[in-house]
Design a protein that fits this description.
single chain; 280 residues; alpha/beta; 60s Ribosomal Protein L30, Chain: A; 2 domains
Length: 280
């Protein structure tokens, strides 16, 4: 049986908590989010330094995920692409963590393919699975310690076929490291915090604010949602910037803000609807 599997390409480096450069793949988040995910799930609490699936991971794949895939192929929108993104906690060498995250994503891929073959022989040849690793670059809980919630694989499935991420052209000179967004304000020096907040305020004053039907301000709706989840000011500013500009990282920022599941889905749906409507 021939199975389409696309390995992730184009690794980028970001600073880790240990001040070394952390490694991650260039995940095509924007086309993934815009495609409209049919299934989204995070398999977390992998064992420390291990890529083997836990029993509950296998149970969800066997009883929920693969049956949903099989059923979708009897409809007009079959699941054609599965995206798997592996993560680790912040302990250990950054490159080793990249490899560990990739190993976890591959372990999920292998289990999914096994269950697809058991439940619907031959279907695996019609599905493309892309595996990526973001290593320690995007912890859900930033502690610098062993944290089981950071040891996870994000699973997404969609009906569209996505092209694998292409490696960026090598720069003439190495670019300066890009700083990660700390989850809390106290992670930054006070002088840096003030400078970032001043820049955020200047940017907001120069950008138009879209409105919802009936004249309600999206910013008012946004602030209400952020207040409900007690999102820190610096993080909510970054989320607002992603709404007005590059939405490819919006889903990741919402995860960091603790907005997940149905709340995240409703938030993203509203943003997509507003972005497609004319600004009034």
């Amino acid at each position: 049986m021939y199975i389409q599997i696309a390995e992730a390409l184009g690794q980028a480096q970001l600073p880790s908590r240990s001040r070394a450069l952390c490694w991650q793949d260039a995940v095509p988040w924007e086309p993934i989010l815009l495609s409209g995910l049919m299934v989204e799930r995070t398999l977390d609490e992998f064992n420390y330094r291990e890529s083997n699936l836990r029993t509950r991971h296998k149970t969800w794949i066997r009883r929920r995920f693969v049956p949903a895939i099989v059923r979708s192929w009897r409809t007009s929108k079959p699941m054609r692409t599965i995206i798997l993104v592996g993560h680790t906690d912040e302990i250990g060498d950054p490159l080793d963590n990249y490899k560990l995250g990739l190993g976890r994503a591959k372990a999920v891929r292998d289990q999914v393919l096994k269950e697809i073959e058991d439940q619907s022989p031959g279907l695996g040849a019609k599905i493309k699975i892309e595996v990526f690793s973001q290593g320690e670059c995007w912890p859900l809980v930033r502690s610098g310690k062993r944290e089981r919630r950071n040891r996870r694989v994000w699973v997404g499935a969609m009906s569209e076929i996505l092209s694998p991420a292409q490696p960026p052209a090598p720069p003439a000179t190495p670019p300066p490291p890009r700083l990660q967004l700390p989850l809390k304000l106290r992670d930054l020096p006070e002088s840096v915090r003030k400078r970032i907040e001043q820049e955020d305020e200047r940017r907001r004053l120069t950008q138009p604010t879209p409105t919802l039907p009936g004249g309600r301000s999206v910013k008012e709706w946004f602030d209400r949602i952020m207040d409900q989840h007690n999102v820190p000011k610096l993080l909510r500013n970054r989320i607002w910037d992603a709404i007005l500009g590059d939405q490819s990282v919006l889903g990741i920022l919402l995860d960091q803000a603790g907005i997940r599941g149905e709340s995240k889905e409703a938030f993203m749906k509203t943003i997509r609807a507003v972005s497609q409507a004319p600004i009034r």
